[in-house]
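Revision sheet: structure tokens.
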Amino acid sequence: MWVGKEAFCDYPTIQEAVNELERRTVQEHETIYIMAGIYEETVRIYRSDLTIAGVGEVIITNNLYARQLDERGEEQGTFATPTLFLNGNRLVIENLTVINTAGQGPEIGQALALYAHCDETVFRNCIFKGHQDTIFTGPLPAANKHGFAFGGVPLHERQEQCRQLYTRCYIEGTVDFIFGGATAYFEHCEIRSLRSTHDGVGYVTAASTPEGQAYGYVFRDCLLTAGADVSGIYLGRPWRSYAATAFVNCRLGAHIHPAGWDNWGNPANEATVRYSEYTASGASELRGQRVAWANVSGTGEGIPDKARVFAGTEFWS
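Predicted:
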């Protein structure tokens, strides 16, 4: 199935093509090919067993943001804002640029490019651009900070696990721009910090790893970069108490704060988070800079590889 502006394409918009496949009763693995172009739309995908592949430069863009008022005159919240929403299993997303252009600031709040509440999903050669909360990787925590259910785009399937592989992707943002509870493995990606209007302070990750889940975020052989005016960026802070994040043989720019990690204003988190860095050189010096409650290792022992992280599955191979 082809999407594009040409008359010979099956559909002019991505959502129309998705809707057609979701109407089909036989759920074989399908592929949607998208011609190069800019698609100004919000895409909501509930179906499983689907590949979406861009051919040429494919840009999907929208500008929804959390402080925007809904039809009831209330702020719609973070999880109503994604440009691309995924709620299926066994998905492959490749060669797409997904952007939320809402910008940043107190009048904007959070603005998602990707809401990935999906399992056994591979993102390959993709670009994700936003500011605060660029990528959310499900599952959601049990409740928000007020004890209520999260709103936003309705979930048709609440996966107990969300296992995701990001390979050769580019992800940019300012604050908590990779966040959520998934077991997510990022390899050979560029993770770029933009300057935040919130006193310039930024955080790459904000994991909410469920208690008892073996792995949260793993970044392997990734580049952490930033603009010339960006500094004081933390590798992560815990959105929930059992956040787990590891950086393995990554190359970090000078913009990363020497302490490395932040406890989100709650010292109790220091006893429950699992924050680790594995580096081939300079471990002793790095250990002297980082917070005492994070792990820095110069050895190969315990390094989380894909086979271990995704044990029992083959979607990543």
